[in-house]
Design goal:
single chain, 128 residues, mainly alpha, two-stranded antiparallel sheet, 77% helix
């Protein structure tokens, strides 16, 4: 059997990057520790839980990825409106995405949630 440590480390690193990515950066931009601190704690907890689950059942990688995506999307959906309203239009000359309509961002989150549910369903309902 192949050693699952290599894919597991990549899996955990990707999850951590996704969870703490935009919220931590946004929290630093608007100087609010209530925006950047919880995602760091959540990211560490999600990484730890996903790594334990992946080590126990590496064949269920799609279900784990889908569930973690749903957790990340839930946090992003909860933070989206309050954080987006406080972000400046540009930071260091780069657009922050604030000019995008909120509906477009919510639709993107919805499509990503549909992808996550597809991953979970695909893995749970496949033939053994």
């Amino acid at each position: 059997m192949a050693n699952p440590v290599g894919p597991g480390v990549g899996f955990g690193g990707a999850l951590t990057g996704v969870v703490i990515g935009w919220l931590v950066i946004s929290g630093f931009v608007i100087h609010d520790p209530l925006v950047w601190a919880p995602p760091i704690v959540l990211g560490a907890g999600l990484w730890w839980g996903a790594m334990r689950a992946f080590a126990a059942r590496p064949e269920r990688w799609a279900t784990l990825l889908g569930l973690v995506m749903l957790c990340v999307l839930l946090v992003a959906a909860l933070y989206l409106e309050p954080v987006l309203r406080r972000l400046p239009e540009r930071v260091a000359g780069m657009p922050t995405g604030r000019s995008l309509p909120l509906l477009q961002l919510k639709l993107t989150l919805g499509l990503l949630a549909l992808l996550a549910l597809t991953l979970v369903g695909r893995d749970l309902f496949k033939e053994p």
